[in-house]
């Protein structure tokens, strides 16, 4: 069963601002570059496109519940969590994930994914596209994973079967 996900308004705004900022910086580099020194604008372009491409490639696109696993779909390297390793699953109140800081990951461009931490839940791995409708999955290894399907109750029901 496939569960759709969508960006919240903040993630949309951050993604648009990030894209426009990159485009403006790249355009400015080419405008101020001399005909002799084109290396710097090319380097800036390559670095920015690489960062943008990586952010796009690793963002979650959907969640798929199969008979044996939860698959977090991404353009590169899906994440697979076997049902046998899931200890608990619950809808998380937005207040419980508020104040989470990103320790390594992306905080708004195409979603929120990577390593995050806060005082309430300690360290977590997020594969989220919004900061509401969060579902917390705790594994038998006590790893905490946050996902944000558009229909959290249906997602939990499918994953609990």
UniProtKB/TrEMBL annotation:
The chain crosses the membrane at residues 12-32, 38-58. InterPro entries: Bacterial_PH-related (IPR027783). The keyword 4Fe-4S does not apply. It comes from the Bacteria. Keywords: Membrane, Transmembrane, Transmembrane helix. Pfam families: bPH_5. The keyword Membrane applies. Residues 62-160 form the Bacterial Pleckstrin homology domain. This is Bacterial Pleckstrin homology domain-containing protein. It comes from Ilyomonas limi.
